[in-house]
Amino acid sequence: MSLRICPECAKAFFMSLLDSHARCPHCGVFLADRRNAKRERKVCPLTFSVRGSVLRAKTTDFSGRGAGIIFAGRNLEKGTVIDVTISELMIRRPARMVWAKQGSGSIISAGIELL
Fold first, then answer.
1. What SS3 state is found at 17?
2. What is the DSSP string of 35-84?
3. Residue ranges of the chain assigned to CATH 2.40.10.220
4. Gap between the Cα atoms of 68 and 7, Å rounded
5. Choosing a second label site near 23 at 20 to 30 A (CA), which of 17, 32, 89, 102?
6. Rounded to whole angstroms, how far apart are CA atoms 23 and 96?
């Protein structure tokens, strides 16, 4: 079971981890995982460059279309295009920052879409 927060009514409820298409029991809004690709938990070191700066990061999960990453630094805006290198997976290509949020201290958690 996983705790979910409805994006419509902002009320919390529990949902099965296997159920990727459910409705909020409070307001009935349909909740769907917008990522159609299967994600695999995989921690790999990576580097990315943005505006001439090279930063080190780690993946938290990975799919053929994108990855979750964590890094230390300043938050990047949604839509920012970065150049990503994940040597372990033989990936070197541009990616777009889909979301990013500030964690504790200077740690940023983000989602990237490979282009």
1. coil
2. --S--EE---EEEEEETTEEEEEEEEEE-SSEEEEEEES----TT-EEEE
3. 40-114
4. 21
5. 102
6. 30
Hunting for tokens 């279309």 — which residue is that? 65
pTM for the whole thing? 0.65
Total residues belonging to the chain: 115
Residue type, 76: L
Q: Are 57 and 47 in contact (CB under 8 A)?
A: yes
Cα–Cα dist 27/36, whole Å: 25
Kindly state the tokens that stand for 112.
């990237």
Q: Which two tokens stand for residue 109?
A: 């958690």
pLDDT in tens, 45-59: 999 998 889 999 999
According to the model, what pLDDT value does residue 81 have? 94
What's domain 40-114's superfamily in CATH? predicted glycosyltransferase like domains (2.40.10.220)
Nearest to 97 by CA among 76, 74, 83: 76
Please name which of 89, 87, 82, 55 lies closest in space to residue 71, comparing C-alpha atoms. Answer: 55
